[in-house]
What does this fold into?
Amino acid sequence: MSAREITFGRAVAEAIQEEMARDKNVIVIGEDCWRALEEDQLHPKYARKPHPRVFNTPISEAGFTGAAVGAAMMGLRPVLYFLMGMFMLSGFDQVVNQIPKLGYLSGGQAKLPIVIYTSNAVGNRYAAQHAWSMHPMFANIPGFKIALPSTPYDAKGLMKTAIRDDSPVLFLSHFLLEGTKGAVPEREFTIDFGKADIKRPGKDVTVVAISSMVDKAMRAARRLERQGIDAEVLDPRTVVPLDKEAIFRSVEKTGHLVIVDDAHRTCSFASEISATVAEEKFDCLKAPVKRVAIADVPVPFSPVLEDEIVPTERKIIDAVKSVLNR
It folds into this structure.
C-alpha cells in the first residue's frame, strides 16, 4: 500500500492502538493518557471512555508508576504515559530504582516490559521547570532502552518495537514534532532498535542529529550545499542501544564530525558520541569533534533568551565550517 501523510502524534497513537488490538496484555496507564490515544479519534474501540485497558489516573506519579511496575510483573505490558518528561521526577524512585533494576535484581525472574512514553520540551516556551531533554540522564541508568524518533515513520515503527520488547523502554517524543507530518505506510512494520538512519548522504562532514535536531540539521545541510559543502545527516533513532558502527562508517568516509543534541552541553549525549568516536576512531578524524547543544543554564521562559541558548541552523552551519576550517 502507498504511504499516507500523517502527523507524528497520529503515528504514535496508531502504533499504541494497533498493539492493543494485537495483544490483550497491552494497557495504557497515566495522567491524561487519553491524549496518547485520541489523535484524530483513530479507533472508536479505544477512544471510547471508559475502556477497561486504559487507566486515566490522578496526578500521582509515584502511585501510578508503582501500579505499572506491579502490572508488568504480573504479565501485562503497560504503556506508562507522562504528559511531560519532567513529571517523571515526581515518581523518580519507581522510574529509576525499580523499573530498570528489578529484572537484574531478580536474576531475570521478573520481566518489566514497560514503555515510558513522554516528551522532551525544550523550545516550547515552557520555562525551566517544564523544559528539559532527559535522555542523557536516563542513558546513564543501565536497564533502559531509549528511543528518540524524529519522523512520523520512525515514531510508529519504534513505538511498536518498544511495546513488544521485554525490557523497559523510554520512548521520548518532542513537543515540537507532534504536529509535523510525514509518510507512514498502512502496512504492518517495525523498526529495530540500534539501527541508525542516514537521512541525507554526504561526503564532507558527518552531522549526527538527535530527535527534533534532525530537521534543523537537514535545513542546515541544504544551506551548506549551496556553499559547496556536502553534509551527511545521521539520525541514531535510539541512543540506547546506539548504532556506533553506522557513525563510525560515516566518520571514516568524511573525517569530520558535528553532533547536534537537544540537551545541555555538559554530559549531553553528544558528549558520549564524541568520546566514543575519539576512543575508537580517532585516527579517522581530520579535525576536532564539535558539539552543538543547549547552553548550561536553566531554560528561560523568555522566547528571545530561549532561542539564544538552543541549537539553531546558524550554529550548526558555523560548527560545520569550523571543523572544515572554512
